[in-house]
Write a structure and sequence with these properties.
With about 130 residues, the protein is an alpha/beta fold. The chain has two helices and eight strands; from the N terminus they run βαββββαβββ.
Length: about 130
């Protein structure tokens, strides 16, 4: 029987320092799902939520080297049970916080932080159900 494919996205970032990435994500509540010398996959939540992947720029099977993520233009939204509690926990651990938690017009309460690669993380919880357009 053929295994079933997951039904969610797995963003993959090309980065040069997998150790710094792993240390950041583990410190802030993610678990390592898979790690090799050239690849890191971390998960957040109960295992059915978000996973992020990181790979070295020279790890492509064809031997080519591709540019590493330049640290601009990407925000990954991460569902968390309570954005205010997550903010306080990350603040205590010295994370680089870009904003305080605030209510967004689309029904999320969230704040922004950034990982060592420049990936902006938007930790949020839903504070108000919005009508679907």
């Amino acid at each position: 029987m053929k295994p079933e494919n997951p039904k969610r996205l797995f963003p993959l970032f090309l980065v040069t320092d997998l150790d710094a990435s792993q240390a950041f994500y583990e410190r802030h509540g993610f678990a390592v799902v898979h790690r090799t010398d050239n690849y890191l996959q971390v998960g957040y939540g109960d295992g059915n939520e978000l996973e992020l992947c990181f790979m070295k720029p020279d790890a492509f099977p064809d031997g080519s080297v591709r540019p590493a993520f330049a640290g601009k233009g990407v925000i990954v939204s991460v569902p968390t049970p309570d954005a205010d509690e997550k903010y306080q926990a990350m603040k205590r651990l010295g994370a680089k916080l870009l904003s305080e938690p605030s209510d967004k017009p689309w029904g999320w309460r969230s704040f922004f932080t950034v990982d060592p690669n420049g990936v902006v993380l938007d930790f949020f919880h839903v504070y108000k159900q919005m009508a679907v357009a």
